[in-house]
Model the fold of this input.
Amino acid sequence: MPQLMPKLFQKVKTINYNQLPPIVQGIQRLSDIRMASVSQQWPSTSIYDVNDTLQQTLNNIQIPSAKKGPVVGIAVGSRGIDQLEHVVHHCIQFLRAKGLTPVIIPAMGSHGGGNASGQKEVLATLGITELSMGVPVLADMDTVQIGSISQDFPVFFSKTAIEVDHLILINRIKSHTKFKGSLESGLCKMLSIGLGKATGAGLYHQKAVTEGFFWIETIAQMIINDYNIMFGLALIENQNGHLAHIEAIPGKNIVSREKELLLKAKKLMPSIPFDQIDILMIDEIGKNISGIGMDSNVTGRHRDIVGNVYAKPHVKRIYVRNLSKKTQGNANGIGLADVIHTRCLKSMDFEATYMNALTALSPEKATVPIFFDSDQQCLAACLHTTGKVSGQSLRLVWVKNTGSLQRFIVSEGLKPDIKKHPAVSLMTDWSPISFDACGNILEH
Done:
């Protein structure tokens, strides 16, 4: 694949997009668009003292008596979570103070290219390394079949997680992008898919096509019943992306308590406060932001073999400008965009992206959309295909990513909606979009 890309770009470079009538017409209409920054305010729910909250909830956990210095595996996933590095480090110190020997076990299914070194690299981007944490990172991909749900539905679990004396889970609880249920993204999903490694993750996603996601609870409960899950550390973020809830849940209570915490997490989810959007422009997508690069709960759009979703906000065109640095080239979810900047394609790690998309049975999320070399061309393509006659009435929303919605930029076509929304305030005057000599946006 890498050998083919230079030839592809050479061929693309021979096309003068600025001579295409739709692009010419779209660029002409861009001059009519005026933009302004807005802010969105939510009630304050952020935890003031994370250290104190962590210590209080960890003190509530009954640490079982065991042989001297038992090994405790701390399962950590691939998501970018507020203060995750700090939370993991504090947990390690707490365990050491109790006479336990902590180690870190990556619990991220097939992420990181589905191999041990790739998963270590993913953790490193989150600030979690052997050096920073002071403990080993046991990143092997070996699994053991520990049972089955039915004759053709075996259950796999990390061999390393089985071999440690106790296991702890650290993960964020939130709405999933692929499905809705009483358990979505959280501790139980980490137990089943994350610690099922690439073998389990691949099989379980295949089963989801015909059987749904009931197995998340079934597999999690099976593991909780048969193995020493000391506790799960449930994290919930608020609309600002800050930790709003930290709770250590005894292993036996994880399933029931996580169902309750999911309801709390859903109430604290950020959202775009407008509906009927013509163009949603996103600066970056990536695995550190959402499993599918851009959270479908925010964009309202999801393509998947288990069902397509077109929910609020209803967006006509999505334009993605770049991949996040922390996604390390994994562009899973790029297929949810209509138009992308060429830099996205140049930054793609096709092996990691394809591994992720194929494991999740979602090749459509790795599909490369139309791409152009400049913001001007990309926006022109979006504008031309919205059917809008004038840029003045265009409803455009420009966000950094789907996890950063406290402050963003909108076009003048949304002015009436801003006036009606009590939580949204205009922060700057309206001004035209400015482009540099290469046609890329001049950002202020």
Remarks:
- The chain has a mean pLDDT of 91.
- The longest strand covers residues 229-237.
- Residues 4-43+270-432 form one domain.
